[in-house]
Write a structure and sequence with these properties.
The chain is mostly helical. The protein has 8 helices and no strands. It folds into 2 domains: 61 residues, no CATH class; 79 residues, Arc Repressor Mutant, subunit A, CATH 1.10.10.10. The two termini are 31 Å apart.
Length: 146
């Protein structure tokens, strides 16, 4: 559920994604290699299900206007100032495009090249979405501290 919450806009959407993920688990349990860690296998399925959910939604809406180049900032600078629950609430307020790229890059450790491939976007779009997500999170942090 924690993985799904990171990608979803709210708890209801996270439940929908999680249910879809567990359906995939049950349908593909014969593919599970018992010599490997189950939690890791389950996490991969939940991340991929979240991405698939994103892809299906993105086809229905127009992608936000994006810029190609932005400077990268250290993710620890943002994350070190707030606790997990506060961060989760703020991340859920981001647009779907920003939230997905932020989670994939900062939380799950994917590269911009991998994100671009997974989401069928350009590397520049991935970098731009991450930059804008961080900018929005910084604004939220400033507002929260005042």
């Amino acid at each position: 559920m924690k993985i799904c919450l990171r990608y979803a806009q709210d708890r209801d959407e996270a439940l929908e994604v999680m249910n879809d993920g567990f359906m995939r688990v049950f349908l593909n349990i014969d593919r599970y290699d018992a010599t490997r860690d189950f939690k890791s296998w389950l996490s991969t399925i939940m991340i991929n299900t979240s991405i698939d959910h994103y892809r299906s939604k993105i086809r229905k809406i127009e992608m936000e206007e994006l810029q190609a180049k932005h400077e990268m900032e250290d993710a620890e600078g943002i994350l070190s100032r707030i606790n997990y629950d506060d961060l989760l609430k703020m991340v859920q307020q981001l647009s779907m495009a920003y939230r997905t790229v932020f989670n994939l890059f900062v939380i799950d450790g994917y590269s911009h090249e991998e994100i671009a491939s997974m989401l069928s976007i350009s590397i520049g779009t991935s970098k731009s979405n991450l930059f804008k997500a961080r900018e929005q999170l910084k604004r939220m942090l400033r507002a929260q501290s005042h």
